Amino acid sequence: MRKAVVVFSGGQDSTTCLLHAVKQFDEVHCITFDYGQRHKLEIEVAEKICQSLNVTAHKVMDVGLLNELAISSLTRDNISVSHELMENGLPNSFVPGRNILFLTLAGIYAYQVGAETVITGVCETDFSGYPDCRDEFVKSINQSLVLGMDRSLTIETPLMWLNKAETWAMADAIGELSFVRQHTLTCYNGIIGDGCGNCPSCDLRAAGLNEYLDNKDAIMAAYRAKTA
Question: Is 83 in contact with 201 (CB distance < 8 Å)?
Answer without folding.
Answer: no
